[in-house]
Structure formats: structure tokens, C-alpha cells
């Protein structure tokens, strides 16, 4: 037990350093591009390349890990990411930064897969829910902590880029020193987006809209804050408050999802988020405190759309489809994230900084209309709904088995113990099936 705790502490330290450094960099890049007076449209297209790279990484980075192993792959990914961060201040050019963003997204996906699959390998039916909660808490707090770092150096200089690179490089140390055996990554069942949509239209679209809205805020939020006149400290508070709000609102929304019809909860959440987004657009120039409250509520509720979409979809799936469903929902989220920054940037070009929240409100309006009038699938009674799980989509690449709902699949897939009098060849085959091979991972 002590050995497991020590191993997990090393992983958690690596996760904190990595997520903090990456979150800090994402805010820094948007702010720096705004300071350099790039147009909102161009900023959106530069930053969206991170989403393109990240989606590609979720599809193909796992193959690199399979070939060279977890620690070597982690070292390569971290070295490439740290080096790419140091290139940014050398030349502030759109083409270069777009390429660096795509490269950063790809290797960041690989880093997340390595750490999350390692973390997930420590889960069993006794500790799965606890480990899942710990991981989600660490992820939220690290992301919020990354926003605070922006206030400690001049974003117009090279020092903050060096700080981000140092955090990424230091993330190598705890994981590289572990003596634990690497977990196994195997390819699980895949589900197409078309099949996902047919099974759960609202779940598929909910995941896509969540990706669109969250990526738009992370990419263009710092630009919005800079262009309405917030200083660096205010911008830091503005971004951090939204992430803390997402963490705090996750539990009450989860309670509602377990007690009421989830389709209705998603509909109401979308309506409230749309109102908060419009409120943020209207009060952007008037009161900082009211703006932070409105944006915090908006982001806090928007962040719950993805786990609600997951819950709605899993209610319609068999337990052995959890891994494939999770992969398809993440892909839908990724497609949305590739749309978010350019779309919000277009509205900011047309309407000024407040266009960010106008575009978000219109997107939520589309989701509301779809849920009211679009196709739907018969869903279970409230008492038959699966357990709601708070889930940050960016922190779900390698966590299929860490999801507490995986317990049902694991138990249902167990093969009965072989009869001692059975054929030895059959017994050998049974032993092999229950051997050390890990369950499929995303």
C-alpha cells in the first residue's frame, strides 16, 4: 500500500507540473498575440491548431507509446513540448506559432495518455471512485493554478515562456524516477461518430457543443480580457475564477442529474449558460465583479455539458461499450474544439470583444433548439439511470478503467472459474484469458 501511494504521489506531481505549465502557456499565448495586436480572427486560427494537433494525438500518439514504451515516449513528448515553447518568443509569426500549436497539441495528447493510463492502471473495484475523484480534483486545481502564474512575469517578454518550459521539463523527473512497471496499452473497440449520433443524438451534439464552447473560452478568453482593458492580475483572476467555478458546480449539477431526467437537466443548463453568456457580453465594460460572476457561472455550467452528454449516452449503452463510447464522445468533443476558436474569433471581429460571448450564446441556442425539436432516443426511467460522473474531457484520454462505471463492465466480463475436472487445454486457455494483460484502454 505504501509503495502504491508513493508511486501515485510521483504521478500526481508530474500531472500537476504538466497541466499547470500547459494551462499557463495557453493563456499566455492568447494574451501575447493580443498584445502584439494580431486581429481576433487570426488569433483564433493560430490557436485552433492546438485542437487539430490534440485530436490527431488522441488518434495516433498511442502507437508511438506502444512501440517505445511509456517512459521513453513521455521523455520524447515532454522534450519536444518544452523545446517548442522556447521557440515562441524567438519570432512572433502566425505561421510559425500555428505550427508550434499543432505540434504542442499532438505531444500534449501523448503526455496525457501516458500519465492517465499509468494512473488508471492502479485502479481496482475498491479504489476506482476515489482515484477518479482525486485525478479530477488535481486536474481542475492545476489548470486554475496555471492561470495564476501569468501575473508573475511580463507576458511581452521571454521569461514566461521559459517558466512554462521549465514546468514541462520538471514533469519528467517524478515519472522518470518511478520503478513501477509500465502499464499496457492495447487497442479497444472503436465507435464511429455516425454510430454515436444514431445511438444518442443529444449526447453526441452535447459533447460537440461542449468542446466548441470550452475551447473558444480558453483560446479567446485572454484576448477578450485584454481588449476590454483588464490588467494582467485581473486577467489571471478572470481565467482562474471560471475554472474554480467549473469545479464547484460539478457536484450540485451531478446531484441533479442523478435525481431528475438528464435530458431536462441538460436543457435547463444550456438555457442558464446562454443567459449568463449574454449577461457577460452586456456587462463586459461596466463592472469587473459582475463580469467575473457571470463568466464563472457560464463556464461552470458549460463545463458540465460534457459529463451530462456522457451520462445520457451511457444510459443507452451496454456496459461493455463504455470504452468505445468514451472514445467516440471524446472525438466529438475534439471536433467541436476545432470549431470553437475560429467561430468566436469571427464574432469578435464583427462585434468586438463581446462577440466571444454572443457567439457562445448563439451556439447554446442551437443546442437548445435541437433538444426541443431534434431527434431523440428513448431513455431509461430516472431510477434506472447510471451513476453520474464528473468528468473533464481534457482529462479523459486514458481513464476508461478509472471511470467508476467501468466496474460493472469489469464484473460482467469476468469468466466463471473453470471446473477442475475440465479439459487441461480449456483450463489453460481460461487462465490465459484472466492473465496479466490489461483491459482495453482508450
Could you explain the architecture of this structure?
Helix content is 73%, strand content 0%. It is mostly helical and 442 residues long. It has a single domain, classed as Up-down Bundle (Growth Hormone, Chain: A), CATH 1.20.1250. Helix 1 (2-35) runs parallel beside helix 5 (128-148). The longest helix has 34 residues, at 2-35. The chain starts with a helix and ends in a 9-residue tail after the last helix. The model is unreliable at 412-442 (pLDDT under 50).
List keywords for this structure.
73% helix, 442 residues, globular, Growth Hormone, Chain: A, mainly alpha, disordered C terminus
In short:
The protein has 442 residues and is mainly alpha-helical.
Can you tell me the CATH class?
A: Mainly Alpha
The sequence of SSEs as H and E is: HHHHHHHHHHHHHHHHH
The major β-sheet equals: none
**The CATH H-level homologous superfamily:** MFS general substrate transporter like domains
Query: For the residues shown, what is the average pLDDT?
Result: 81
Low-confidence stretches: 412-442
CA-based gyration radius: 22 Å
Helix and strand content put the structural class at: mainly alpha
- The domain tally reads 1
What is the CATH topology descriptor? Growth Hormone, Chain: A
CATH-scheme architecture:
Up-down Bundle
Q: Provide a count of the helices.
A: 17
Helix content: over 70%
SS strand fraction: under 5%
| Overall geometry | globular
Number of strands: 0
Terminal Cα span: 27 Å
